[in-house]
Design a protein that fits this description.
The chain has 229 residues and is an alpha+beta fold. Helix content is 44%, strand content 29%. It is built from eight helices and eleven strands. Strands 2, 3, 6, 7, 8, 9, 10 and 11 form an eight-stranded mixed sheet that branches. A three-stranded antiparallel sheet has the order 1-4-5. Strand 4 and strand 5 form a beta hairpin. Helix 5 runs antiparallel to helix 6. The N and C termini lie far apart (79 Å).
């Protein structure tokens, strides 16, 4: 009897672990092994801010875990777009280094990493969603809380399959899976999901349209690189 009890207890633990860890992974991501030093060198200041469970905003020490998070982000390709290449290209266009800020909400177990450029004529922000699963950062993936919310939607028998997918897209996938590029200039502001961008050239065009000096800066940097070699 005792052996049967241990066996059933073991099965229940396996079942709980399996159910707790199952979630749909972001299909748009792949890892790369490129040298990302040129992008890292464009990051000037780094900060780490946490909103606690009692809604207090606290500045935390930027440590090894946060540095690893930034490094992991730089080694991700979103569809056909290497994140490190986006960061380097925008820095080159605006002739400006960027700041990296990590914002994390303990209650939601999710947050964002912001790369911010303050150009002469525009402010550009690249936002990368993050979350935590099993107390570890995950990049552009669903948090454990989001996975639970999606299971509740799936179990709701009062709504159709189409409505379930629409709710999951708006409430979870859109917030967790899709990085965004936000550009503010004297011409106005616009926010674009990287899901809708097919190439690095499209990003260069978006940034260039807000800063008429960007083409001159790019040509100047290319000329200096060629001259130096």
């Amino acid at each position: 009897m005792k052996s049967l009890y241990k066996f059933l207890l073991g099965l229940s633990v396996i079942f709980i672990v399996a159910c707790g860890s199952s979630y749909e992974k972001n299909p748009h991501l792949s890892k790369i092994d490129d040298d990302v030093t040129m992008a890292k060198n464009q990051i000037e200041n780094k900060t780490y801010t946490v909103t606690t469970n009692d809604l207090k905003v606290e500045e935390k020490e930027y440590g090894n875990n946060e540095e690893k998070l930034i490094d992991d982000i730089l080694h991700i390709r979103y569809n056909s777009l290497p994140i490190y290449q986006i960061i380097f290209d925008i820095s080159t266009q605006l002739d400006s280094m960027c700041d990296a800020g990590i914002n994390f909400n303990e209650l939601h177990q999710a947050g964002s990493v912001f790369f911010i450029w303050l150009g002469d004529e525009s402010i550009v922000t690249l936002t990368i969603p993050i979350a935590k699963r099993n107390n570890k950062y995950v990049i552009m993936e669903l948090s454990e809380l989001s996975s639970s919310g999606m299971k509740k939607i799936d179990s709701n028998k009062k709504i159709t399959s189409e409505e379930k997918e629409m709710m999951k897209e708006l409430l979870y996938y859109k917030l967790a899976w899709y990085p965004t590029l936000h550009i503010v200039s004297n011409k106005g502001s616009q926010e674009v999901s990287l899901q809708d961008i097919k190439s690095l050239d499209e990003i260069r065009d978006l940034v260039g349209s807000s800063n008429h000096n960007s083409d001159i800066i790019v040509e100047k940097n290319i000329f200096e690189f060629v001259e130096g070699n």
